[in-house]
Amino acid sequence: MLSSRVRLVPTTARLVHSLICNSSSSFMDLKTLLSSLNDFASLSFAESWDNVGLLVEPSPPHTVNTLFLTNDLTEEVMEEALQKKADLILSYHPPIFQPMKRITWKTWKERLVIRALENRVAVYSPHTAYDAAPQGVNSWLARGLGVCTSRPIHPSKAPNCPTEGTHRIEFNVNHTQDLDEVISTVKGISDVSVTSFSARTDDEEQTRISLNCSQQALIQVVAFLSQNRQLYQKTEILSLEKPLLLHTGMGRLCILDEPVSLATLIERIKRHLRLSHVRLALGVGRTLESRIKAVALCAGSGSSVLRGVEADLYLTGEMSHHDVLDAASQGINVILCEHSNTERGFLSDLRDMLGAHLENKINIILSETDRDPLHVV
Q1: pLDDT, mean of each 10-residue run, the chain (377 residues)
Q2: Suppose 294 and one of 69, 100, 311, 314 were both cysteines; which one would form an S-S bond, judging by CB atoms 3.0 to 4.6 Å apart?
Q3: How far is CA 316 from the centre of its chain?
């Protein structure tokens, strides 16, 4: 018996060492993790009105072993996250949206913040950044339609662009003396970058000046140029726009490879979203046998995104009563699935994608209590 116990010692030691090593390798520093999440889907894709990113941060340093995914962070979901030892909650919808003037036990959203901080749990929300992302919520929703090609309804603009400023001002200068004076003056204005190149106008050699500047600097440059009538009359001002991202943006316009009946498409959508019922508004003159080729969709609340888009069908979570009436009057069918039902299923795919993106360095778990608050009874 003694020799048996002796043999167990190194085995136990190896097991403990293995657990320690595996445990230590499954942590990520919060700031490192946030950087990786931004690499996965840039927060710059989010709408300007949205409240995305890190919303609750425990005092640093903070390490993350378990990332907890949910569509909505309710008190019930928070309790589940704490029971499962979450270090970071990724809540698709931001639990903090309107500014808070106080943090007390009075309202449920204030209690969420208190419980997160007391238990050292960070809270992060991507929301519309994930709506816009090429591999995001709307692309996942489009997969339920069948084989199709899709593009964003409202493409995002590139977050970074090599061109500086919001405007470009171009004009020609005839004489070297004037050129030196002009360049010296405009370089003295902040937020202005200057380039020059040779140009020929009416068989006369001239220098073409090109300025990139901010909106504020534009006013100062124009004020200077207006003092020289010859320069000012030949001045061109261009508004600079960042390039569009063809696969990133709000909503999706999907063209089915093969048109199908509305009834067939309804069954596909229900199967994809795991719903027994959806709400349907038939377009004027349409039936369940009407052929569907073009589908405009938007996860969540689609009124503002879908309004005015030409399609056979609008698919979203919710729309205003009057927007449904407007669409139906134009012969466009409308399917409503309730807000979060068009989003929640994406989280299963997100878990797998983030696992690969983060090289399985942390545990990623999906909420089991998160659900849409509305039920058909």
Answers
A1: 33 37 68 97 96 98 98 98 98 96 96 98 98 97 97 91 82 77 88 86 80 91 84 81 92 98 98 97 98 98 97 98 98 98 98 97 98 92
A2: 311
A3: 17
